[in-house]
Amino acid sequence: MNKALRNPWIYAAFIAPTLALYLLFFLYPVVQSLYYGFYQWDGITDKIYIGFDNFTRLLHDKVFIKSFWNNMYFLVFSLVINIPLVVLISILISKVNRLRSFYKSAVFVPVVISTSTVAILFGVLYNYESGMINQVLRSIGLDSWAQEWLSDPKLAMLSILIANAWQNIGFFIVLCLAAILNIPREIVEAANIDGATSWRETRLITLPLIRPVMFVMLLLSVSGTMKVLDIVQIMTNGGPFQSTEVMSTYMLKVGFRSMELGYGSAIGVAMFIIILVMTGILQLISRRREEVQY
Amino acid sequence: MKKNLTLIAATLLSCSVFLAACGSSDKEEKKPADTTSSTTTTTTEEKKEEPAPETKNVTLKLRHTQIKETSKVRLKIFQDVVAKTEQENPGLKIEMEGIDEVVNRDQKLKAEMAAGNPPDIFEVFGGADLNLYVKAGRMLDLTPIIEELGIKDKFASLDEFTVDGKVYGLPFGGYSEAVFYNKKMFADMGLTVPTTWDELIATADKVKANGKTPFALAAKDAWVNGMLWNTVMERNVGMDALNKVVTGETKWTDADFIKGFEAYSTLVNNDYFTKGSLGLAYADQGAKFLAGDAAMLFTGSWDANRFTSDEAGDLKGNIGYFSFPSIAGGKGDQQSINASYSNGFGFSASLSEDQVAMVKKFIANFFNEEVQKRTLIEDKLLPSMKLTDLSGVDPLISDVLTVMSNASSSWKAFDAIVQPSVTADIGVGLQELIGKVKKPADVAAHIQAAQEKANAQK
Description:
The complex is a heterodimer of chains A (294) and B (458).
Chain A: H1 2-6, H2 8-36, E1 39-40, E2 48-49, H3 53-60, H4 62-95, H5 100-112, H6 115-126, H7 132-139, H8 153-182, H9 185-193, H10 198-209, H11 211-226, H12 230-235, H13 247-257, H14 261-288
Antiparallel strand pairs in A: 1-2
Helix pairs in contact in A: 2-14, 4-8, 4-11, 5-8, 6-8, 11-14, 13-14
Chain B: H1 2-44, E1 58-64, H2 72-88, E2 92-98, H3 101-115, E3 121-125, H4 128-135, H5 143-149, E4 162-163, E5 166-167, E6 169-182, H6 183-188, H7 197-209, E7 213-215, H8 222-237, H9 239-243, H10 255-269, H11 282-290, E8 294-300, H12 304-307, E9 319-322, E10 337-347, H13 353-366, H14 369-379, H15 395-406, E11 410-411, H16 420-434, H17 440-456
Parallel strand pairs in B: 1-2, 1-3, 7-8, 10-11
Antiparallel strand pairs in B: 3-10, 4-5, 6-8, 6-9, 6-10
């Protein structure tokens, strides 16, 4: 057995299947999309080589640019609203001792539900006439507050973001809570003896010590929001009139609804590059900062 | 370690030997069954195939889209035909797979066609979809089969499935698009069926004044909005002009077309449609209509099935169907209707000879007067084949049949004419009109730009 562990070929044999799948389902499609991106192709008949036309078209495509900004809206929302909310709720839960595991599971429940279910569920809640939100507003006499949550282009994106946040923060809270509970008790006690108030303790002890986890959340938020598809697809399908289109739903529409597979591939490649660059920048930033050790 | 490898190799080898043995023994075992099958085939079919067909294990994959609650009747008919065909042909296995129709049409089937591995039998739309697949050589030419079965002339229309004189698909039903109306509400409000545009506006205004919605609409899915708009457009410009947008001889920005967009947008601006419609999925508009919230509903005759079901409640038997009113001064055929036989079955070009033989059996069992009559009575689907006997038909269905036979001409939907990318932009444009964020002329200009781009790509 020991001999086997020293044989590099054994390792290779164990890695091979995963590597093969990775190549087949990740690397190969990426290369393939890049290749298709240079063609005008409906996916079925002969391809026509058009050089960089698809990519230059992207830069002038108003809908694509709109989709990109919608993705950014997603990202900004999760950075400005979701993550602070996650940290706040985590700290609150960490402070209570009674029923802590109940709160922990309660916030985690939405994560377990599939995104499709969440999307349909919120679709029902947001319904203009029969949705619960409008019903409640009307029943307390706020008729004018009742909104076309998903069909008003000004509100639709926000409505999706709220549904998305409801589902996703649970996972982040569990992550964040684990980090907070991992902070050695001695440090907190020492701080308390030195006279740190609750606020100072949070600001000077807790927050710096959970920074690595916060960075992970940041990274997950960036990649998650830039490639978001399912919840938008189901709740609004990019509508009304493409006001909630994100890059991935637009890619799907162009590629398979309009049958412009070449252009669709170009959108896919653009998404790949955008996400790569953004996560790359984040990595650089995190490497420059020294982490607090304990 | 080495020992293990040899062990695995040996196991694999023995497995393959075993499997090979299975394969060869198959033929011998099936001999007795063979004779029974040949007798059944000779009795059911008039034509005798000289050598009794050898029973082979043939598998056919059938992709259908009848998965909704509202389409379970049709699914049952499919299943019965499949079961019958399987029973008559021992060794035949037809695997049915159900999938959502929009997903199938827009994503799955298209992707499979691109990759070259469509299912053996599948639901397909005639027109633009079919043309593309025929061009790529993915569709089985059915001309010899339907000639042999003698059913070629029995279809109401095979136009949408015919490319260069060859038939590549068979419609199992047809539809027309017109206005369903709540007879009870019309009677209560003292309304009559409008026959002109002005009468329609007056009718709608009266409905609105009575606190109800004139037209139920669910506008989240673009194709739903396309239906009413398509008819309004045809009334204004005529089919000839619509057909010419792909050649560039006419433009979406021509005066008549603009009038069409404006007429549609009049309906929107008068608030005739369900509020919040842009957030509603298709099934919701039927629900609103059946709930008595709306007086009228423009959609396809396929919904007649739902409107005669128990879901209709009080309204059962109180729903009528009328052709869209004429528009004075319009250039279209004012009594025409959007009707087509584009919903059908297609077959993969890569079938083996045995599979084609079985496909022939399937076609014989599915496309006959008996199944068509059953489809009309149970599923309320307009028959794609000419029927000799029309007894026992539901009143709403006979309304639908009457409207269709009274129409001066029928034409196919715009999405069977223009390129898919233009269809997509029309969908967005109509939503913009419904959302009142763009003017008709701007929408027309945008669609024309998309049309020119698509025309240039040919």
